[in-house]
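Why do we care about 3D structure at all? Because function follows from shape, and shape follows, mostly, from sequence. That is the central idea of this module. The next example makes it concrete: a single protein chain, its amino acid sequence, and then its structure expressed as C-alpha cells.
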Amino acid sequence: FKTILIGCGNLGKAIASHMAFEDRGFELVGIFDKNSENMKDLRIKGISISPIEDLEIYCKEVEPIVAVLCIPTDAAPGIVERLVALGITNFWNFTHYDINSAYPHTNVQNVHLNDSLMTLSYQITNDGGLE
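And the structure:
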C-alpha cells in the first residue's frame, strides 16, 4: 500500500526511520512537513521531506492510499480534509483527532502513546508488578 507520512518532527522521523513498513505490505513513498525548508538536506530511507503545500500535486501523481499522521491535533482536521478530498481514506493516526466521527467511511488505527503508558502503569500497580 502506497503510504505517505505527514509531520516530520521527532515522532514522524522516528516512525519513518525505524518502522519496517515494507514487511507489513506498506511502501513509504512520501514524507511531508510544514517546515520542510529546515530539513532540505534530510533524507529518510532515501525520501526527501516535501513541503505540505505540494501534497495535492504529489498525491494526484503518486496516488497513495494510506497516510500516517504525526502532526499536532489542531492541525489534523485541515490535513485530513485535504487527504480525504484526494481519495486517501486509510489512516494510522498519532493525533487525538477523531477522524471516524468526521469521516465515518475511513479506516483508522489510532495510536495514543500516553494511553499505552497509562495502561502499563495500571497493570504494574494492579498486577503486583511493584515488587
